[in-house]
Amino acid sequence: MIEVYPHPALVELADAPRRLEYKAGNMGKYWKDLSAEKRRYKLFKTWQTIENLLEPEISGVSMSLPKITLSSKVAQLKAYEDTLDAIICAWVGICALEGRAIPFGDSESAIWIPRKAPIP
Question: What domain of life does the UniProt record list for this protein's source (predicted)?
Answer without folding.
Answer: Bacteria
